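Take a record:
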Amino acid sequence: MKNNKDFKNTNLIESFNHAIDGLIYSFKNENNFKRHVFMAILVALLSLFFNFTRLEMAILCITITLVILAELLNTTIEKIVDLIYEYYEPRAKIAKDVGAGAVLVTALNSLFVGYFIFYDRIIRITEIGVFKIKKSPVHLAFIALVIVILITLILKSSFYKGKGTHLQGGTVSGHSALAFCLATIIVFLANNTLISILSYFLAFLVAESRVESKIHSLSEVIFGGITGFLVATIIFKLLVRF
């Protein structure tokens, strides 16, 4: 039998790694969770086309979080019930049904929130226009960074080679991806040659430090840098021109 200490997190980094393990497991093995994550990304991208207030953005983020949280809790309940009961048990069915009910309630709530927030804007979509995106650089930057983090985690889990963790090491350098994403965002927003050069110089320093400390190989750092650069470019350049 394993020592109880094996189930305890010894430091903050380990706690985050275990938490990310749970998210990746759910994404890989739970179809409903995967669908909700893709829907969350879709909603985040759609929000780029609308001039939301901070309150509306907060409500949208909370709603998305509640749906994903309900899915995670439902998965937890199912796994615990399966661990306790190896055969059919009415009480086990009730526990699973209640967990599924929680997911249904949050999903219905998300529909109502989506209706109240999006409906009027969708009706006036021809008046709003895609050009509204250009007026929300902070919004664009936030969405770009979130997408980079999600893509990095998905790539790390999909091409895991048995070394490193989700926050340190792995197939793609998350630090390099974020650094080059931020540098590219600064280039688009600053419109200044010197600032652009300094931004990429700092990004290269971050990437170099990951190789120097032997946390990542050169190819992993380059892969991360390209990922961050492409996401920022697509969000700030190609998407705006669409």
